[in-house]
Amino acid sequence: MTPSIATILAPQLTPTVDEASLALASNANMALYASMIAYTLAMLMFAWHLAARSAQVAATETADREEVLVGSAGTTGAGSSSAGGPVSSAAGLTESGQESEASRQRGNIALMLTYLATALLVGSVVLRGFAVARPPWGNMFEFATASAAAVGLTYSVLAKRNRWQWLGVFIVSPVLLTLGLSLAVLYTEAGELMPALKSYWLAIHVGVAFISVGFFTIAAAIGMVYLVRLRREEKPPAKRSFIESLPSSAALERTAYSLNMVAFILWTFTLIAGSIWAKQAWGAYWQWDPKEVWTFVIWTVYAAYMHGRATAGVDLRRSMYIALVGFVCVIINFTLVNLVSTFVGMHNYSGM
């Protein structure tokens, strides 16, 4: 009997494992695109939030000038210091709870969009993992998206509790840039791992590295804001901006130090775990591989920062510069070391 058309097509209508994996990878890409849209909206809203803070600072400064003029007859009023100078509440805008309603609303909306974008990005990474049936960081594209997800997730966890809406634009922008470059330059189709990477240490060693990079990134962003805030405290500008609405430079420096400390501890584990994995994979704890060397360079620079920061009488500004040099080394380790042929060794995550 001649088989029916339905019988002939039946095997083709049943999805194979490969087809299912491709569907998951396609859904991961869609979630990634959706995440970028949400991050773009969040970035714009964070910028609008900072604009509202600048307006509040300007309004506070104007009110201070008016109070000084009213009290210029010789009395020390609420708007002047005991020395006759203006007392601006703008410097403690967030700390004293005097943030304007417009600024607060925009910051909260931006934060909600960041939560959504981060959830979509984490979902994209998870779907990619299901598609390839392994930890989804076996090539440079997966490496970049997973790192961006770690940064977004770390910020999302810390932002609401610490009221870090003012920091959002400095975190979301590099995350969005990383995702754009990963799609435009680094994209690699879902596939099998290199034999050397087929180990449970991939999930442990690289997973902890991602978390530490998340803390390093946020600490670096706060560190750069600290340097700007400190400069403006030392030399007050003629026209103030949202910078004057941020926490004091001392508070920013302490926060950056705390985050760098957590990241440094995690990076120490990353270095040790990598050595153990190298022993299992290559027969030696240390091979002078470029990736190993740069991992150690990062650890050394941040160790110098920790030591300098803990030394009595140290210049905190110089210590912060050392921390930022360490973050530059992190960027080099995650980009040039993986992509430039000069650095290619036993580690090769590029997939290119």
From TrEMBL:
Residues 140-341 form the Cytochrome c assembly protein domain. It is found in: Membrane. Pfam families: Cytochrom_C_asm. Keywords: Cytochrome c-type biogenesis, Membrane, Transmembrane, Transmembrane helix. It is a multi-pass membrane protein. Residues 73-99 are annotated as: Disordered. Residues 73-92 have a biased composition (Low complexity). The chain crosses the membrane at residues 30-51, 109-131, 137-159, 166-188, 200-228, 257-278, 293-308, 320-344. NCBIfam families: cytochr_II_ccsB. This is C-type cytochrome biogenesis protein CcsB. It comes from Intrasporangium calvum. The gene is ccsB.
